[in-house]
Amino acid sequence: MALPRTVARFNRVATNRVTRHVATVLPGFAVVMHRGRKSDRLYRTPVNVFVVDGRYRFALTYGANSDWVRNVLAAGGCTIETRGKTVALTDPRLVEDSSHLWAPPGVRTVLRALSVDSYLECAQA
Hints:
This protein is an alpha+beta fold and 125 residues long. The protein has a single domain, classed as Electron Transport, Fmn-binding Protein, Chain A (Pnp Oxidase, Chain A), CATH 2.30.110. Helix content is 30%, strand content 38%. Strand 1 and strand 2 (42-52) form a beta hairpin. The chain is globular and about 35 Å long. The relative contact order is 0.20. This is Nitroreductase family deazaflavin-dependent oxidoreductase.
């Protein structure tokens, strides 16, 4: 179950403007830099990210139809800023994992409560 689009719109206008400034240095966070599929505009979207089995995993709390996810899939990759580093990612793919066992305990609880089972995974380029 994805969060409602109204929450996504609020976060885009309010929360993301604040989060974008700290997501590049905090553990478990990143800013995804991706280009619009039609506009070719560069976007910066704050997200939660985790490394699972050598791949970068993003929980899709708003679902796989979010613009940033569609942009990354269409481009075949993206760049993220995380923990003070810039990392190029490639080979994006959507995966399902309802176990949540890969996630840290606090994150696991939130993902289960929200019924988030869809993820975007990418390999480091």
